Amino acid sequence: MNRKMYYSFHDIPFGSSGYGYERPALRFSRREIMELFISIVILSLAFSIARSRMMYGGYERMGYLMVSSFLAVITAFACHEVAHKYVGMRYGYWSEYRMFPQGLLLALLLSFTGFLFAAPGAVVIFGSPPREENGKISAAGPATNIVISAVCAPLSPVIGGMAGEIVGGIAAINAFLAFFNLIPFGPLDGRKILAWNTGVWAMMLVVSIALIMFSMGLL
């Protein structure tokens, strides 16, 4: 018996059978959960080390920085990737996160210099989405970061104290991640968003820059 593998619900020939289909719910495989967990832990550690080096020149307040970095990574990285996965699956594509071990190792090693360049992994879309769908799937990640930053940035001075610092850090890291991913280069989201809709890309870029400036107290 010959079997054919379909990489997208768009390709499955339902028409003549009279049956519809339900788009897949947001589910995570065991491998995906494990790779997300590993990526979150390593990125949290790398952010803690890098921030400690930049802020204190050593490894002071690592406990506090680990907690705040973990919260920032959950919102900035994990929510970003889950947003890609969710929109990809809503369009009918099997979407799974895959970590990039070399990128995680590089992030951890660079963190000891006080500098962080993170390429932990990405959501892989199984199929060939057209330009518009690809652009919207790509936009979901930085759009999520922009929303989180826009909510957290004005709350930080209102809350004040250590909690306010943590919320401010979450706002700043989300804004930076949105801006970085909107750069229209290589595998970054910006290139695919720009190819789909220049106006959407430009608007998201301007908002992400404004949020970075606001988080730095420049607006």
Task: List its salient traits.
219 residues; mainly alpha; 7 helices; 2 strands; disordered N terminus
Task: Give a written overview of the molecule.
With 219 residues, the chain is mainly alpha-helical. The chain has one domain. Helices cover 65% and strands 5% of the residues. A two-stranded antiparallel sheet has the order 1-2. The longest helix is centred in the middle third of the chain and has 29 residues, at 62-90. The protein is globular and about 50 Å long. 40% of the residues are buried.
Write the layout of secondary structure elements.
Layout: H1 30-56, H2 62-90, E1 94-99, H3 101-111, E2 121-126, H4 131-159, H5 161-181, H6 189-196, H7 198-215
Antiparallel strand pairs: 1-2
Helix pairs in contact: 1-2, 1-3, 2-4, 2-5, 4-5, 4-6, 4-7, 5-7, 6-7
Could you give a short account of the major beta sheet? Answer: 2 strands, antiparallel
Order of helices and strands: HHEHEHHHH
The number of helical runs is 7
Helix content: 55-70%
Q: Write out the strand line-up for the largest beta sheet, numbering strands in chain order.
A: 1-2
Q: Could you say which structural class the secondary elements and strand pairing correspond to?
A: mainly alpha
Spans of 5+ residues with little confidence (pLDDT < 50)?
Answer: 1-21
Work out the radius of gyration: 19 Å
Estimate the strand proportion: 5-15%
* Net shape: globular
SS elements, strand count: 2
Summarize the structure in short.
This protein is mainly alpha-helical and 219 residues long. The protein is built from 7 helices and 2 strands, in the order ααβαβαααα.
